[in-house]
């Protein structure tokens, strides 16, 4: 037996016990007549002690040789510490060592195994197994487990059944790109890895499973943006015989359960906002509502004056940055540079200082007077002391730019508090989205989303205006879940495919099984999927998903630890009936 | 709202309630003046009633038109049944229908949605979404969920952390064949889908995660034998600072928990048997110990007589089939034919009837007398009334043949009772297995399994004799789990790879990351993996895994419902930098 207690367990009540511990040498302190070792395992740190009075010289000598991260087994007696450490759960005791066994030595690690490490990102990823020994990463993985268990517990108690759907499925090139898997037994044919179990969960509803969930890996072969992974985990859910209201209530319940269990936070009924309102008020379909700075549209009060920039704009819109009237000219210039960065893309920015004394000072004093600015202040809900920032241009681009500014200023002002949680349902998403490059519409959510029944006839006349019973759950400015009521009628599904540019043959080849299934008594159904990686990160008060994934890939889709993807044997290619065909 | 109660919920206490139900028409009975409909959902069946006295003619007429599997919404009042059905939880009540809405009609299903269906296997798989509506399949999936939840609950409470390991990893052609995934971002290179998360779970141990588990899909591109799937689910587990004893105790605890929670069965400490004993006593490394028929080795008592077949055999071995002394000559001949089938492969079979009166009658009366047969009976533990069946030949083949006969006879005699559970640990597996075709040794478990430390030196002199701390958990004649204590030393791992025929370069290219990790303080560790599909099937009292998988593949690895694998677009091939290269 390697141990009879872990490094996090011993307390003063254990004093006098003979124990066996195993773990890693966190550090050694050698004071000559006494040597202390901090021994670490997943559960904590226990201080070991040896001294000239109570220990043999040979043992002291052995202890002095131990390098960091050596794996040790220790036998000894629990004794009271003379100098206690109140910051450590085991800080009242130490273990007087009677025998040390080195279970495995360690080379000097390439970075220090401490909460704050000197290891850069690349090094940490290459030696991820050492990075995981660090508390921040280890605790994130334990936290993820806890969240997953709570999700399963809650949904199970609500009669949801976790059903495993297949990973080797069929490629449906619509949407994102599939990862493909050549079939050896059916040479020339390919499986695809699922982008989501969407069609399978709908078939489970046709199959009467009623309430389904699955915590499941999904795959998208996309050019990776920052903080995206080619494989990611979804909490995938579907319910039959439901309307949108049933789904929102159920998953509001799940989210409330998580906030309560994980953070002991009680949240009121989640606010709901239409997509159109979210875009108008925050320029964003996933607004962070932990803070204000709502958009004030200024067309009525800022146009038709002498200022041509505004007059020619589709939208003039501003926000009030709290307490920023004191910004110096230099600070404001830097802010203007910031919105003009290509990542944001504004042409310029108009500002109005709403001074504490009620006066205004702006970059457009030439065109507007105090009475005008009063109205601007009213519409942006500015208070004396605020800085009103105004952008203009096409509605879509200007909203996106102002949203970026709003988020940036909230970040700088510390308004995005990691321990505050503000969930929000965004509802009534458009069914279709215009691809401005091709002029074609594609599904905003996915091709199985039902148009609002009363708007079906708009599909031909004004497809962009059709709304769907589609909804996102937003938490602190992040979309953590999204879903919709699905089509459950073969004809409507066929119409939808037509509008998305599928020929009837293509629709049948790719999704014939689903449309067939709809003919055999498909119930009304709908669902939602949560991005577990992001949900866990946000619940953990962070925004980077990578540190909540045990073995993440880098931005080129590589696992630098195992060095994958990699070359393969030509015999493997031959067996699969494929050959390389590089550019 | 589509319903305010499900079809399994209503009882006499609900009489008088106005309710809304949704579900499928299971069947309609039209008695002219009264029409009954059985409405079905996941939770049960509720009888609907309409009659000339209480319902409108229009409603009766509408009800008469409803075909099977129509999706209905019903509003009505719960009333007491005049003729109750004690076999149905809702059998005391029915719902007097006030309004019917057809939510979706149904074509006539290709097979009946009943517990006993008229649908053949192929049809059921093609319309799996209809098959899942049938109670046997639906209940299997719910059962699987329940087992998975209990596994997670138990392991979580034992401080195990579920960690998700990656699905896009590196190909390691040793062992079974990998499914490969061409990389688009790294053209010419490939990911592989994991055959198991073996190396990752070991790295998690190096990373100090201490106790890991994961319910995870694994992939093997093998030519499919019956009841194998190219993707299957494992309960994958690993522990640090453990010896074999710790692992056996922990997972005996898990299995005991499952038997208790699922079947309310208490099982004593699981028996343990060495691999060598299992082979000698049962001819099988996964013996079914729910019944006896242990092997009796007869070399000493049957050789060196006049019977040359036995004299020239490496092994003469028999079993006593209880109560089979009454078999007719014809029945015995059929049994002899059975062991001579190519699937079993015996050359012939010697039998001895141990009659109720204590006399013997055999096919080798010419060579042996009653005194000989007494000894045979003693060694096979035969009782009067039993039939002793004896096979001979090379030890390995003969044992396998006799094991097949033993299992077949137990099946025929009803000794393999579905509601009896007899777990068994088989321990001390050989480390290496000789591949008789190539003359090379390969790892019996996998290349990371540790040889028993005291036998390390045998590795060079007599590799086949080296045993490992490797173990299987056997339940009712099925291997439900297997694992081992792993190597945690770089040099021993390198030695092992050498013995398995890896050059140092190959070992480094494929597993360098693991051997590197062993240099940074790898703790002693070991683990186990359970086949969830089989575990669930066996706990469910069945042996076919396919009915416990929502969407299984057929023996050619095809999903006949979605028709995968399938052809893909040539643009997809181009993007991946591959081309078809068919034979």
Strand and helix layout:
Two copies of one chain form a homodimer.
Chain A: E1 18-30, E2 34-41, E3 44-51, H1 57-64, E4 71-80, E5 93-104, H2 121-126, H3 128-131, H4 135-157, E6 161-162, E7 180-182, E8 190-192, H5 198-206, E9 211-219, E10 231-240, H6 244-263, E11 272-274, H7 275-282, E12 296-297, H8 299-302, H9 308-311, E13 315-321, H10 329-340, E14 350-354, E15 360-362, H11 370-379, E16 387-393, H12 395-412, E17 423-427, E18 432-434, E19 441-443, H13 458-461, E20 470-475, E21 478-485, H14 490-499, H15 504-517, E22 525-531, H16 532-539, H17 570-576, E23 578-580
Parallel strand pairs in A: 3-5, 6-9, 11-17
Antiparallel strand pairs in A: 1-2, 1-4, 2-3, 4-5, 7-8, 9-10, 10-22, 12-13, 13-16, 14-15, 14-16, 17-20, 18-19, 20-21, 21-22
């Amino acid at each position: 037996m390697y141990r009879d207690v872990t490094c996090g367990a011993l307390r003063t009540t254990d004093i006098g016990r003979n124990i066996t511990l195993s773990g890693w040498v966190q550090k050694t302190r050698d004071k000559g007549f006494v040597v202390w070792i901090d021994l670490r395992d997943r559960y904590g740190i226990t201080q070991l002690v040896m001294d000239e009075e109570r220990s043999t010289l040979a043992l002291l000598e052995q202890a002095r040789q131990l390098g960091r991260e050596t794996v040790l087994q220790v036998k000894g007696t629990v004794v009271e510490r003379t100098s206690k450490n109140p910051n450590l759960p085991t800080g009242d005791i130490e273990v007087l060592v009677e025998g040390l066994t080195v279970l495995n030595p360690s080379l000097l690690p390439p970075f220090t195994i401490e909460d704050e490490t000197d290891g850069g990102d690349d090094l940490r990823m290459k030696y991820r197994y050492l990075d995981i020994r660090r508390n921040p990463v280890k605790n994130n993985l334990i936290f993820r487990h806890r969240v997953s268990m709570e999700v399963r517990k809650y949904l199970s108690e609500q009669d949801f059944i976790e059903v495993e759907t297949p990973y080797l499925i069929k490629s449906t090139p619509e949407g994102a790109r599939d990862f493909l898997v050549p079939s050896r037994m059916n040479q020339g044919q390919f499986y695809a890895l699922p982008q989501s179990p969407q069609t399978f969960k709908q078939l489970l509803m046709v199959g009467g499973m009623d309430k389904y969930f699955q915590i499941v890996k999904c795959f998208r072969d996309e050019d990776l943006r920052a903080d995206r992974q080619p494989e990611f985990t979804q909490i995938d859910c579907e319910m039959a015989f439901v309307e949108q209201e049933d789904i929102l209530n159920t998953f509001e319940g799940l989210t409330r359960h998580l906030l309560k269990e994980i953070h002991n936070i009680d949240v009121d009924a989640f606010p709901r906002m239409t997509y159109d309102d979210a875009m108008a008020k925050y320029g964003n379909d996933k607004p962070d509502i932990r803070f204000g700075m709502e958009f004030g549209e200024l067309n009525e009060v800022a146009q038709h004056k002498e200022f041509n920039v505004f007059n020619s704009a589709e939208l003039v819109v501003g926000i009030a940055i709290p307490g920023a009237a004191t910004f110096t000219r230099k600070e404001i210039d830097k802010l203007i540079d910031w919105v003009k960065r290509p990542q944001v893309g504004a042409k310029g920015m108009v500002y109005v200082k709403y001074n504490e004394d009620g006066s205004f000072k702006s970059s457009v004093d030439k065109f507007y007077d105090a009475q005008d600015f009063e109205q601007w202040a009213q519409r942006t809900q500015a208070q004396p002391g605020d800085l009103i920032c105004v952008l203009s241009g096409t509605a879509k681009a200007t909203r996106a730019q102002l949203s970026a500014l709003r988020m940036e200023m909230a970040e700088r002002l510390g308004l995005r508090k990691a321990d505050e949680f503000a969930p929000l349902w965004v509802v009534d998403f458009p069914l279709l989205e215009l691809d401005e490059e091709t002029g074609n519409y594609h599904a905003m959510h996915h091709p199985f989303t039902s148009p609002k029944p009363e708007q079906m006839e708009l599909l031909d006349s004004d497809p962009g205006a059709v709304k769907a019973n589609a909804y996102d759950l937003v938490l602190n400015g992040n979309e953590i879940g999204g879903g919709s009521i699905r089509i459950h009628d073969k004809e409507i599904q066929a119409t939808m495919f037509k509008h998305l540019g599928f020929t009837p043959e293509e629709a049948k080849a790719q999704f014939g099984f689903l449309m067939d299934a709809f003919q055999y008594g498909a119930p009304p159904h709908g669902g939602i999927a949560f991005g577990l990686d992001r949900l866990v990160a946000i619940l953990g008060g962070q925004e980077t998903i990578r540190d909540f994934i045990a073995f993440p890939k880098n931005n080129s889709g590589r696992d630098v630890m195992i060095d994958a993807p990699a070359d393969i044997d030509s015999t493997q290619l031959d067996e699969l009936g494929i050959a390389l065909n590089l550019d």
